[in-house]
Amino acid sequence: MDLQDFKDFFTIENILHLLNDYAALGPIPGILLPMLEAFIPILPLFLFVMANAAAFGLWKGFLLSWIGATLGALLVFFITRRLGQRRFFRFLAKHAQVRKLMNWVERHGFGFLFLLLCFPFSPSSVINIVAGLSRVSIYQFMLAVLLGKLIMIFTISFIGYDVRSLIEEPLKTVIVLILIFLLWIIGKKIEIRIQKG
User: Fold this and answer.
1) Do 160 and 49 touch, CB atoms closer than 8 A?
2) CA 147 to CA 157: how far, in whole Å?
3) Distance (Å, rounded) from C-alpha 116 to C-alpha 127?
4) How does 133-169 read in b/e, with b if 16+ C-beta sit within 10 Å?
5) Buried b (16+ CB within 10 A) or exposed e, 87-105
6) What is the pLDDT of residues 139-173, one digit of tens each?
7) Which residues contact 161 (CB under 8 A, 6 or more apart)?
8) Domain membership of residue 144 as a residue range
9) Does pLDDT of 9 surpass 80?
10) Within 10 Å of residue 19's Cβ, how many Cβ atoms?
């Protein structure tokens, strides 16, 4: 199977079929697929989340996707943090663009990470690795992942569950944007408390 065949396999129909085939495993496939995306960035997280919402319903699908995506991000972060001094990671850390991003993450901490992780098409695997290589605190990263992925996964789940209502009822779109803003404020307040403590 070449790369194009691999990409062509991932359609919403095929993923739903896969979830149906492994329905006997309960929620495990719904958690594993988003979790794998953290390690293999060419996998389509957007489709996994939409398929979970369609297969399990909005709330359960959202929860499974959020758990999987969060666990994946945290695992990549902790593995990178643990192995950060190995040859491959040292090479990455010396790269000018990576250094620049690491410095940015260290200076702006939670707020920057949170915003990046809120957006569905941001390179989350790169963000996880860069954060792991940087000196950003574990608590800032965990908070940004928990809240940022919450927003991003819920937004995709909501869209995947009922695309038509989002277009026909713009109020729902406004509510999602307000929720992003409120979570950002809450995250900043928690970050300040963590830094003081």
Assistant:
1) yes
2) 15
3) 8
4) bbebbeebbbbbbbbbbbbbbbbbbbbbbbeeebeee
5) eebeebbeeeebeebbeeb
6) 989 999 999 999 899 988 877 776 566 567 778 77
7) 53, 54, 57, 58, 61
8) 3-196
9) no
10) 21
Q: What is the CA radius of gyration of the chain?
A: 18
Query: pTM, whole model, 2 decimals?
Result: 0.77
In angstroms, the CA 129 to CA 20 distance is 33
Lowest mean pLDDT among 28-42, 65-79, 180-194: 180-194
pLDDT at residue 1 is higher than 60: no
94 or 135: whose pLDDT is higher?
135
- Give the orientation angle of helix 170-196 with respect to helix 96-118, to 10 degrees: 120
Helices (H), the chain: 3-9, 12-21, 28-39, 45-56, 58-83, 87-94, 96-118, 124-133, 138-161, 163-168, 170-196
Per-residue pLDDT, averaged over 73-88, amounts to 84
Number of separate domains in the chain: 1
Give me the residue label for tokens 């000196």: 135
Count of residues making up the chain: 197
